[in-house]
Amino acid sequence: MKKIAVFTSGGDSPGMNACVRAVVRTAIFKGLEVYGIYRGYEGMIENDIKRMYTYSVSNIVQRGGTILKSARSTEFRTPEGRKKAYENLKAHGIEGLVAIGGDGTFTGAKIFYEEFGIPVVGCPGTIDNDIYGTDYTIGFDTAVNTALDAIDKIRDTAAAHDRIFFIEVMGRDAGFIAVESGIGSGAEFVMVPETATDLDAVVKSLKNLRKTKTSSIIVVAEGDDEGSAEVIMNKVKDKIKDKKKEFKVTTLGHIQRGGNPTARDRVLASRCGMAAVEGLLEGKFACMAGIMNQEVVYTPFGDCIGKEKPLIQDHLKLIEYLSI
Amino acid sequence: MKKIAVFTSGGDSPGMNACVRAVVRTAIFKGLEVYGIYRGYEGMIENDIKRMYTYSVSNIVQRGGTILKSARSTEFRTPEGRKKAYENLKAHGIEGLVAIGGDGTFTGAKIFYEEFGIPVVGCPGTIDNDIYGTDYTIGFDTAVNTALDAIDKIRDTAAAHDRIFFIEVMGRDAGFIAVESGIGSGAEFVMVPETATDLDAVVKSLKNLRKTKTSSIIVVAEGDDEGSAEVIMNKVKDKIKDKKKEFKVTTLGHIQRGGNPTARDRVLASRCGMAAVEGLLEGKFACMAGIMNQEVVYTPFGDCIGKEKPLIQDHLKLIEYLSI
Amino acid sequence: MKKIAVFTSGGDSPGMNACVRAVVRTAIFKGLEVYGIYRGYEGMIENDIKRMYTYSVSNIVQRGGTILKSARSTEFRTPEGRKKAYENLKAHGIEGLVAIGGDGTFTGAKIFYEEFGIPVVGCPGTIDNDIYGTDYTIGFDTAVNTALDAIDKIRDTAAAHDRIFFIEVMGRDAGFIAVESGIGSGAEFVMVPETATDLDAVVKSLKNLRKTKTSSIIVVAEGDDEGSAEVIMNKVKDKIKDKKKEFKVTTLGHIQRGGNPTARDRVLASRCGMAAVEGLLEGKFACMAGIMNQEVVYTPFGDCIGKEKPLIQDHLKLIEYLSI
Amino acid sequence: MKKIAVFTSGGDSPGMNACVRAVVRTAIFKGLEVYGIYRGYEGMIENDIKRMYTYSVSNIVQRGGTILKSARSTEFRTPEGRKKAYENLKAHGIEGLVAIGGDGTFTGAKIFYEEFGIPVVGCPGTIDNDIYGTDYTIGFDTAVNTALDAIDKIRDTAAAHDRIFFIEVMGRDAGFIAVESGIGSGAEFVMVPETATDLDAVVKSLKNLRKTKTSSIIVVAEGDDEGSAEVIMNKVKDKIKDKKKEFKVTTLGHIQRGGNPTARDRVLASRCGMAAVEGLLEGKFACMAGIMNQEVVYTPFGDCIGKEKPLIQDHLKLIEYLSI
Q: Kind of enzyme, top EC level (chains A, B, C, D) (predicted)?
């Protein structure tokens, strides 16, 4: 293998740049030529591909977003689109790919590999942490800290006014951000897609709060079965029927995707990037380079996409115990 | 004057604790007894009043929220409510008040002073910066920095996806937060209540963006004449009719009220708190202690409430010039 | 077991408060009475022990430092001191202890258990991450992020002036903070106690830096074999003999011990605290509750103190590969 | 005037990039051609000058350091050096300059203007705030917040161990950073070059601290008349002679020069940059564009350099009153 390319795809996450940097520099360190593909599969189809050098990734390890940009490509879902993409790679002489992204990215990479035999190793880049085959995904730690920092701020004003706050964090299918930011902020309740939400229990609990509680924080993952934070707040309000209690809702939104990556995300991203290049050179194709139990692990794309990654049970217990 | 009391009222703002600390310690330094009234006028009516000592305000200068809590009191709007409040103060022997808050707080204080002759000096505690008689209000600088930090994060993800983001910041009647966070973040447009928003100009501009612009940020004060950020986004989207352009909206919400105060807010809060106590001792009643042109200025409550505080014209020009 | 006590000892670390909170609330949740011992072993000897309630630990999960304070006790190193400590615990009816700290704390706890048979479970509270039996220690993640944030700032000014900066981070015997902050900041070199530092290689490398490198960052753990950052800088300067190159040194110092704990530290601290109480109730004495591979693990104090925790080899490789 | 150039010189400060951006975009908005001179006067002499476009300053408003780099030039102090610099400017057709920097920068600009008649307007870029003609300098607010954030962290660990901390902040000739970070952090004492430091008073005070004080923070400007923080700590330690008291010292160093600029610094920098270009076009030569009392003010370089900027007296009083 002499030439490889790297791209970022799907929703961006903090640490993607650190990962791109690691891929580029490891490749050059190993004597490879390396290219950057812009806007993911879209750029692969449109031949938006540029040679990258050591200095191309200078001063980006600490930056949010992705210098390679990201996009969702509908054309790549068609055989014609993928054919075009393949022709472009071939024209450049690119023999291997590093794909940084999540579920959708890996699904595309798997099909692409099966159709054209082009080796791909993935890196888990998503804030949601919902990828099997790695303890944490790149961007998750930053997103949790951003959410936590926001909740800390809201706790200040909630306490000043004795209010009940419903805070919606990201997580359409996975409650990881909600659970860790909930534990970290000392939230009274956390509502996640993985478990059935019992609003009556919440209502009962809010009615019986000890007097020394000056405020309540309820963290809601956007994909909760009872609806969005706003919907849930209104349901709870209706059930509590206490005009003295003040309810507020905040949806944290896209701030959770940006920001300078944390130390943990930069180290994880760097290590996954290095491992992806090493994996390509060792013949590990159509799999993802993740970190489990502090070691690099290569997991076939099929498992990354298909297997479920459960919440840590102790974490749910922590919320119950510590919010008394 | 031997005994004074301090309270916080209305929406809380970062730096209120630093102000309370300054009032308490300056009072003690000057040989006064000092009391804290909890939950603003509500606590004054309910006699929720406690003696404060030097150590009562230890380790709070850096904290958001207010240890004295805040509330909005409907009872204080009635003569009966105010009578009760006065009786409580009298029973404690309290001869002077420091009121930390905004418009509503000062309106109440003015009436209270007129009815019962109890000296009150105010400190401008609100994130909105919409109080005449001080260059900046306590909490404004922190709120702007919080908004800015959030917009910086959103810029990362906006740039990664070439998106157009509408970001709503606080400011029902005043555009100060929008303008300063807009300049600071390099926003393409800022929409504020003080000026008529011209959506057609925005649409025209967004259509003709130079190619090197990878994203657009539009900061909207919540009180803009064209509606909320979401409403405005939908109007713009309808007018642009370009399916390739991606539009997103984020409402920053209550994170803008919390957080550790910035250096500027802590210094301002400390100075206003000291000046309020000195003002009481010098016979300056029914006025607010603010800082203008680096000097302490006492402004009658009537002016603080009644006079308009205009945006800085240069700031509006900056947004126009620098977003090219 | 009906009554337990918790204390913090040795150098403080961010997250200790979150751990104290978890111990107190888990204990109460499980029906125990719980006490706080102030200033570690010193307070145990001086009987500085207070009952703790659910609300005693409200609003501390996000705070640096330790509300129980910490101290190093010389008296506890004597049999008489330990006897006094034991008598005080006995008088309170305290039957179990949770000790939050590092090496020294656990050494004391081990002897105390051996002499008086009082059950103790430890929680790993130290920024250095040098405790065997847990993947990470409480406070390490915060310390790394603080160091990283400082190095990011220094990189700004280093780049503006094309300077070579030597930055000393904490770590007398362990290079974990240096390595992770080095990877995270894209440092050119990292010098740690665990490996022999080759200054000639550094000098050679600095002389041959590619032209596009605008600055160099060298992270030095305080316990490096070649001396402090200042000593090393002077050695390198003497060897390079290039008057055009500007060398600077910064010692980050105690900022690394403070600050609001990160999400990771709050979650880790909470989980260790809960596990410590559960361990006591399950009869796990004279051991530490740590997290390895995402699971709670109880490790005998002897192993925590005696066994070495090696650096992750991949991390050293990352610094080499990625600084080209 | 058709062509102007901008450069940064002397010690860098956060916000310089925002200022460069404002100069470049205002110039283009006004129909001018604009050039960037790299490494200050050094680059002027070495002809390191490049045309700048709107996109040249994209995405830098939030960055610390300076994309134009900075340097101190000895050659520019010679008539020959300045001659070379002038010839280079002339060759490019550059008719006006914006100089971003402090005392030294303006001294050079003044001589250069006197010798060659080339119009120069300055912008006050230095963290020290020691420039007459502007209420605040660009970078000061960020430096104070960085210092404050560090002191907040140290306060955590100081309180946990009941320690006395001496913290050295930047300020060789001016105590502005020390005073504002001292007020903001609730420091017990602040020592600055502008006033004589009375160590005996400090010693007396430290001996008599009330029992509820758990720690003491003493902020020392690097240029204090009694020496560095370390020297002062040792003097105080010798005088106190209390082995129980623990003394520690931390020198914050270069972290104060870096970091993303605060909102205030970005707005100030943007406004000064715009005003500098407008000043050039209006024929305001050899002066600095600063902001006083919220208005743009142009002050002749001679005054900026020669007149003293005093500390705010109220600020010194605040430290005395509020540390009781």
A: transferase
Q: Which residue in the set A152, A155, A259 is minimally distant from B156, CB to CB?
A: A259
Helices C103-116 and C79-92: crossing angle in degrees, nearest 10, is: 70
Q: Whole-angstrom Cα distance, residue D124 to residue D136?
A: 8
Through-space distance between the first and last CA atoms of chain C, rounded to whole angstroms: 58
Count of CB atoms situated within 10 Å of the CB of A160: 27
Q: Which helix (H) or strand (E) holds B44?
A: helix B40-45
> Looking up tokens 């059935």, which residue turns up?
A196
**Chain B residue closest in CA terms to D147:** B263
Query: Chains A, B: CB contacts under 8 A, how many?
Result: 109
Do C259 and C142 touch, CB atoms closer than 8 A? yes
Between C323 and D277, name the one with better pLDDT: D277
> Which pLDDT score, from 0 to 100, does residue B110 have?
97
Q: How many CB atoms lie within 10 A of CB C95?
A: 17
- The encoded tokens of residue B174 equal 């005043």
The answer to whether residues C191 and C219 touch, using CB atoms and an 8 Å cutoff, is yes
User: ipTM above 0.85?
Assistant: yes
Q: How close does chain C come to D108, measured CA to CA in Å?
A: 19
* Residue of A145, A159, A293 with shortest CB distance to C262: A145
Beta-bridge partner residues of D233: none
Q: Where is D269: in which H helix or E strand?
A: helix D263-281
Distances (CA, A) of B323 to B240, C266, D34, D58, D168: 20, 41, 17, 9, 39
- Region B132-147 average pLDDT: 98
| Residue A237 CA, distance from chain mean position | 32
Cβ–Cβ gap B156/A65 under 8 Å: yes
Q: DSSP per residue over B220-268, as a string?
A: EETT-TT--HHHHHHHHHHHH--TTSEEEEEE-GGGGG-SPPPHHHHHH
How far is the CA of B52 from the CAs of A95, A225, B6, B57, in angstroms?
73, 48, 10, 8
Q: Which amino acid is at C280?
A: L
The predicted structure's pLDDT at residue C269: 98
Domain ranges for chain A: 3-139+261-306, 143-257
Tally the C-alpha atoms within 13 A of residue B258's C-alpha that lie toward its C-beta. Answer: 20
Backbone φ and ψ for A4, nearest 5 degrees, come out as -130, 165
pLDDT at D61 > cutoff 80: yes
SS3 A22: helix
pLDDT tens profile C16-38: 999 999 999 999 999 999 999 99
* pLDDT tens-digit series, residues C184-225: 999 999 999 999 999 999 999 888 776 667 689 999 999 999
* CATH domain C142-257 topology: Rossmann fold (3.40.50)
Q: Decide: helix, strand or coil at residue C229.
A: helix
Pick one of 3.30.1330.40, 3.30.43.10, 3.40.50.460, 3.30.830.10 as the CATH number of B143-257: 3.40.50.460
CA angle C17, C20, C26 (to 5 degrees): 135
Quick check: C290 and C124 in contact, CB under 8 A?
yes
Q: State whether A270 and C322 contact (CB < 8 Å).
A: yes
* pLDDT of amino acid C270: 98
Q: Do D143-257 and D3-139+261-306 fall under one CATH topology?
A: yes
List b or e across D32-55, with b for residues whose CB sees 16 or more CB atoms inside 10 angstroms. Answer: bbbbbbbbbbbbbbbebbeebebe
Please give the backbone phi and psi of residue B296, each rounded to the nearest 5 degrees, phi first. Answer: -70, 130
With pLDDT > 70 as the criterion, what percentage of chain A qualifies? 99
For residue C128, say whether it is annotated as part of any ligand binding site: yes
Q: Which subunits have 3 or more CB–CB pairs within 8 Å of chain B?
A: A, D
CB D15 within 8 A of CB D265: yes
Collapsed DSSP state (helix, strand, coil) of residue D242: coil
CATH topology of domain C3-139+261-306: Rossmann fold (3.40.50)
SS3 for D6? strand
